[in-house]
Design a protein that fits this description.
By secondary structure, the chain is an alpha+beta fold. 32% of the residues lie in helices and 28% in strands.
C-alpha cells in the first residue's frame, strides 16, 4: 500500500495534514490555533485549545461522590475555546489515594478525551508520554509490548527489551509501540532516554509552578501524525511551509528507519486544492455518500451514536436481487470503513445494511467488513449481524470528529441543522487571497462575501494586509449566501476604494464596506 502525507501548514492560524493511501484520502487532521481571547492566532503565538495528550498541573474544584468523579481546573483563562474548556472531568478512583482528594488539591493530569459539544474534556492522573517507539508510563510497574505486533519471535525479543528497560527505570513503566517492530535495542534506549528527560523537565516545571497551568503541550499536528498515525513506511511527504519542512526532516532523521521522498511545495495554488483534498473534505461532512455502483450511504451523527444506512440506489448491474444486495453491502462496507477514519467517528456505530436472508451471505459480508476495518489504527470492534441486518461496532474516540471541527449548529433553524464554522470560511477566503496575490502584482483587492462573514473577517484585515503587503477591502452583502465570496476588483488602491464607495452608495440597504 502506498502512503502519502500532504501537509498544509502555510496558514499560521490553522494546521491541516492529510493521509492518502493508494490514491484515496484516508484521514485528515485539522487544528485551529487560538489566542487567549478565542481569536484565530498565528501558530507561534497561540495558546490554542486543550487537546489530547496535553499535561497540566490542575486544581480540584468540586467532587461529585454520586459518580465517583471530580472536576478540576486546568487553566486560568476566563473563556472556553472551540475545543477546550477550563474545567475537566476526572474519575476519582484513578488516583493513587482517592480518599485524600478534596477541593483545592493540586495534581498532575493528562487529557485523554477532547472536549466535544457540551461535554468537558476528560483527564487522568495516569500519565503516559509517547515517543516514536516507546511510551513512558510514570509511576507504573508496567513493561509491555503492543498487541498489534503479532510475530511471536519479535514479541519475545521486544518483551525481553521492555523488561530490561523497566529494571532500569525504577518507579516508571514502559510500553513498546507497534512502530518498534524490527527496531534495535540501541534506538529504543535512545528514545527512552529522551522521554525520561522530558518527564524530569515536566516534574521540574510542576515544582516551580502554581496550579492551574499547562506543563507540557504535545508536538504539532504533522509531528503527531508522523509519530502516532503511521505505523508502516511512508512513500512521500509534501509540505508547503519551509520551517515545518525542516522540522519534519529533522524528525525523520532522528526517528525513522528509512526516509521517504520529501518535497517542499511553493506553488500559488493551495496545496489541498491541487491534490483535490478540499473537495474530499467538503464531501466528508455531507450526510449522503455516493458509491461507484450508484448505491449510497446516509450517515447521521447523533449525541449517543452514529447511524449509517445502506441503500441500493441506482445499482442494478447484478443478475438478481440476491446478488445485487450482497454486492451493494460489500461495496458499502469498504466505504464505511473509510468514512469512519476520514470523519474520525468514534463511540457506538450502528450500520443498517440491506436485508439479507442467506446466512452464508451474512458471514461473507462480515468477513469483508472486518478485513476493511483492520487497516484502522483505532481497531473497531465489530459485533455479529442481527436478523434485521444491523451491525453494531464500537470505535475509540481519540480526537474530535471532522463534522464538529468544521461545522456548528445552525442559528437559523433552531440548532437542527449544521453550517460551516466562521473560522473555516475565513481561512478559505485567506487561501483564495494568497492564491491571487501570488498570480499578479495588484496592490488592492475588493472581495465580496456575505455580510456576517465580512464582519467576522474584518477582525483580521490588519494582520492579512501586513502578511500579503496588499490593501484588502471587504464588501458585505446581505443577499449573498453564507460562505460564498468572490473577487470584485483587483488593481490599484485608489480605484479599489472608489469602487467600494460606489458599491456602498448604490446599494446602501444591503452592502456594508469593511476596510482598515
Amino acid at each position: 500500500m502506498s502512503v502519502k502525507i500532504v501537509a498544509d501548514l502555510r496558514e499560521n492560524e490553522q494546521s491541516r495534514v492529510a493521509l492518502i493511501e493508494d490514491g484515496k484520502l484516508a484521514e485528515v487532521f485539522i487544528e485551529f490555533n487560538y489566542d487567549d481571547d478565542g481569536k484565530l492566532s498565528p501558530r507561534e503565538k497561540s495558546s490554542s485549545s486543550i487537546r489530547h495528550g496535553d499535561i497540566f498541573k490542575a486544581r480540584v474544584e468540586t467532587l461529585v461522590p454520586a459518580i465517583s468523579a471530580a472536576f478540576v481546573k486546568l487553566s486560568r483563562k476566563t473563556h472556553s475555546t472551540l475545543s477546550g474548556a477550563n474545567n475537566a472531568f476526572m474519575y476519582v478512583n484513578e488516583c493513587d489515594n482517592p480518599q485524600t482528594l478534596k477541593p483545592g488539591h493540586e495534581l498532575i493530569v493528562q487529557v485523554v478525551r477532547n472536549a466535544r459539544k457540551n461535554k468537558a474534556p476528560r483527564v487522568t492522573p495516569r500519565i503516559s508520554i509517547p515517543g516514536r517507539w516507546l511510551v513512558l508510563i510514570p509511576n507504573s510497574d508496567e513493561a509491555g509490548v503492543s498487541r498489534r505486533i503479532s510475530d511471536v519471535n519479535e514479541r519475545k525479543r521486544l518483551k525481553n527489551i521492555a523488561d530490561s528497560l523497566k529494571s532500569e527505570l525504577g518507579n516508571n513503566g514502559v510500553i513498546i509501540r507497534t512502530a518498534a517492530e524490527g527496531i534495535t535495542e540501541e534506538y529504543l534506549r535512545s528514545d527512552l532516554k529522551s522521554l525520561v528527560t522530558l518527564w524530569d523537565e515536566i516534574l521540574r516545571k510542576s515544582s516551580q509552578s502554581q496550579a492551574p497551568c499547562m506543563l507540557y503541550r504535545d508536538i504539532g499536528t504533522l509531528g503527531r501524525v508522523l509519530r502516532d498515525e503511521v505505523c508502516g513506511e511512508i512513500d512521500e511527504i509534501i509540505i508547503n511551509d519551509a520551517d515545518e519542512f525542516m522540522n519534519a526532516q529533522n524528525f525523520l532523521d532522528t526517528f525513522s528507519g528509512s526516509k521517504p521522498d520529501m518535497k517542499l511545495y511553493d506553488g500559488a495554488t493551495p496545496i489541498f486544492e491541487l491534490y483535490g483534498i478540499d473537495d474530499e473534505i467538503r464531501k466528508a461532512v455531507d450526510r449522503k455518500v455516493w458509491l461507484k455502483s450508484g448505491a449510497y450511504l446516509i450517515i447521521d451523527q447523533t449525541e449517543a451514536l452514529t447511524v449509517i444506512d445502506v441503500n441500493t440506489g441506482k445499482f442494478t448491474s447484478e443478475p438478481d436481487m440476491k446478488h445485487t444486495v450482497l454486492a451493494t453491502n460489500i461495496e458499502a462496507s469498504e466505504e464505511i470503513a473509510r468514512q469512519l477514519r476520514l470523519r474520525s467517528i468514534g463511540g457506538i456505530v450502528v450500520v443498517d445494511f440491506v436485508d439479507m436472508d442467506n446466512e452464508h451471505d451474512r458471514h461473507e459480508l462480515l468477513t469483508h467488513f472486518q478485513r476493511y476495518l483492520s487497516h484502522d489504527r483505532m481497531k473497531p470492534k465489530v459485533f455479529s449481524i442481527t436478523r434485521l441486518g444491523l451491525v453494531e461496532l464500537t470505535r475509540k474516540r481519540e480526537r474530535p470528529d471532522l463534522k464538529s471541527i468544521l461545522t456548528r449548529n445552525c442559528y437559523v433553524c433552531g440548532d437542527d441543522g449544521f453550517i460551516e464554522r466562521e473560522e473555516s470560511i475565513a481561512l478559505s477566503v485567506k487561501r483564495f487571497l494568497r492564491k491571487i496575490t501570488a498570480a499578479n502584482n495588484a496592490r488592492a483587492f475588493l472581495v465580496e462575501t456575505d455580510i456576517y462573514m465580512a464582519g467576522y473577517i474584518s477582525r483580521y484585515l490588519d494582520e492579512w494586509e501586513k502578511e500579503f503587503s496588499r490593501k484588502i477591502i471587504l464588501a458585505g452583502n446581505e443577499e449573498l449566501a453564507r460562505g460564498k465570496f468572490r473577487l470584485i476588483y483587483q488593481g490599484n488602491i485608489d480605484e479599489a476604494e472608489k469602487i467600494s464607495r460606489d458599491l456602498r452608495h448604490n446599494n446602501a440597504n444591503k452592502i456594508i464596506i469593511f476596510t482598515k
